[in-house]
Amino acid sequence: MQKQLIECVPNISEGCDLEKINIIAHSIEQIEGVKLLDIDPGKATNRTVITFVGEPQKVIDAAFILIKKAAELIDMSKHHGEHPRFGATDVCPLVPISGITIEETSKYAKLLGERVGIELGIPVYLYENAAQESKRKNLANCRSGEYEGLKEKLSNPNWKPDFGPSEFNNSVAKTGATAISARDFLIAYNVNLNTTSTRRANAVAFDIREAGRVKLENGKKVLDPNGDPIRIPGKLKAVKGIGWYIEEYGIAQISYNLTNISITSMHRAFDESCKAAQERGLRVTGSELIGLIPLKAMLDAADFYLLKQERSLGICESEKIKIAVKSLGLDDLKSFHPNEKIIEYVLKGKTNNLIDMSLTAFADETAGESMAPGGGSISAYVGALGVSLGTMVANLSAHKPGWDNRWSEFSDWAVKGQSYKETLMALVDEDTHAFNKIIDAFRLPKSSLEEKSIHSQAVELATKYGTEIPFKVMETACNSMEVMLAMVKDGLQNSLSDAGVGALCARTAVTGAYFNVRINAKDIKDRTYAEALLKKAASVYKDALQKEAEIIAFIDAKI
Prior knowledge:
4-stranded antiparallel sheet; alpha+beta; Four Helix Bundle (Hemerythrin (Met), subunit A)
């Protein structure tokens, strides 16, 4: 069963005092199993976005501790900042990451809200998916009036908090209120402008954000039959935005909340902002990411700009990240560190994976006394190197002068090559894991009849798996030869030898993995299963030899 993980992204009303910020942020580490991912303070907004992740109950326990600590250290009666706010912990959204639905996450948000209201005496408003009534779904409604209007808000029966006191007592005067929610992944994203004018930044924000602007005639609001202002919608759905001036940087920004990046992506918000700014005589100089971002959002941005430039999409992940950063100007105001800003990279941390080793360390590990990594892992790695060469030729061909009308054709081949490479790289470690499963199975006790039965079943299952993995290497490496064949036939002819070496590596990967399939299959007791797998493996091996011969024949005919 998939492990349940949720992310918590509390925003505290302190962005200047780093000692306070760190005390509050690191307070969550009292809860074992919760991982602090990011602390992102802003001086001008006097606000810090904190991000941590863990299992649901542990996360809400940690969030409670953080809200309590913020209430102790932050005095809202003395707070000033550019960002809308009404509490020491202004907002505390919970975001489902894996193995849990938004509905289940909402239940945890309500549990957290109830505990904060009762035990800490802080007024709590539930918003987004945790909201108890429709008018409270929008955070802007819950926070309207901000801290300065909180006393009046609490006295209004229509805005009685979901939990906690409904009077502006001395404690509430210090802590303010907290908005707690369950929501989908939100990107807090600022676009930088070459102006100091908040009014002009707001004009661009109103052009873009879903809510748009209020319609005016002769300087007066135009009202509908119900007396409500008529709005002119903005260009993009699932986007909230305002303009502000950031004294720290000496520029105005458009501050966006991208509430559903499957509807409006970061790169589209940036691109449309560039167009809207230009129409108003402004220029976008870059952008700023607050908190963390999913890897896919960065890769999608890279692909968007690569396509606009008619460049190959089949380049490695790290290069795509560089292109996304430069295209969006994410390093305009300060350095952008992918390992600190991309959620998958932060969660990954340090690993013991073979593929994360240096070439020297991998060779040393292979040459050591341990039986793993062995021939299966090496076969997978050789196959990855082979298709990498084929992919390189595809990328070179996509950029060949005079072949401008063929860039898409070669980009498609490069994308295929990258996919094969990623599969084979994953199989480098998986083959070693499969071998270790066999060893672990053999180490199971077998003193009793029951233990012997469990031992025998475990060995059989592990041996089958240890045979299936090298077969997967065979299949993938053999299929990857289509890239090298296409490049030999139609790609850059100066790189024939590179494609040829790629084909030789792929055939070596197939042959090496075939050895592993055969040696492991002989120990499988289920001979029907084993013979069927061996038959398929023999067919793949034969296919690889034929492809290699065809590729070599093309090369011999051309050089």
